[in-house]
Design a protein that fits this description.
Length: 239
């Protein structure tokens, strides 16, 4: 009986070890699946976060600095020169364009290093989309400074016009297809929506430049419109 007892005990130990092994395997598989879901969620949010951060930086850059020039009176002195209005607008935008593109590079690089965001699509699409998005946001800040001519008011207007639309109406936090029809139409005028579409398409889905022509064209139209409106507002203020 003693050998039989020992054999039953060994069999019971083997069964318990096997059950623990299956439990550990199931736990490891669940952890792996949860990690994959979290990784996909992080990858999906990084392009939206990039657009959000860059929008705030670029709008505040031109809104605050140019508004300060209005307060100091240096802008009126500049208008007294023979330089045309359009040249003044472009001259105010170009210095900050480099800073905005540097911010884009920094944010996307951080996303690649920290979150492992891949780059599967067209580099040209990302570069062109980033250029137009930064230019449009800078023009928006310039227009705010032209209208307000005050740093405090410009700060509030720049924050509201860049933070809220870029967070709530761009697809960053909430899917656009789940929004009411009216809001979906409004999102078409939010530059961050088109830029996020470009980043997600080029970085995550591997889209080509041809696939992303529509959001790129939308950013181009926004940038041109804001620059032209800023130029017109300069003329009206000096009339």
């Amino acid at each position: 009986q003693h050998p039989e007892h020992e054999e039953k005990r060994a069999q019971r130990h083997r069964e318990e070890a096997s059950a623990e092994g299956h439990t550990e395997h199931d736990r490891s598989r669940r952890e792996h699946q949860r990690h994959r879901r979290e990784s996909k969620s992080a990858l999906f949010l990084v392009p939206g976060l990039a657009a959000y951060v860059v929008a705030i930086i670029c709008v505040l850059l031109t809104a605050l600095t140019v508004a300060r020039e209005w307060e100091l009176g240096s802008m009126e002195q500049l208008f007294a020169t023979p330089v045309g209005r359009f040249e003044i607008v472009v001259g105010k935008l170009l210095p900050y364009l480099g800073l905005g593109l540097a911010a884009v590079t920094l944010v996307l690089s951080a996303g690649a290093v920290v979150f492992g965001v891949p780059f599967r699509g067209s580099l040209l699409a990302v570069a062109l989309g980033s250029l137009l998005f930064v230019l449009g946001m800078l023009a928006q800040g310039l227009l705010i400074s032209i209208v307000t001519k005050n740093q405090m008011v410009a700060t509030q207007a720049a924050a509201l016009s860049s933070m809220l639309p870029s967070m709530l109406l761009s697809g960053f936090l909430f899917p656009i297809e789940n929004m009411p029809g009216v809001l979906q139409l409004i999102t078409l005028g939010v530059p961050a929506r088109h830029y996020i579409e470009i980043l997600r398409g080029a970085l995550l889905r591997g889209n080509s430049l041809w696939d992303l022509l529509e959001p790129i064209a939308a950013l181009g139209a926004f940038s041109v419109a804001l620059i032209l409106i800023s130029t017109v507002r300069f003329q009206r203020r000096l009339a």
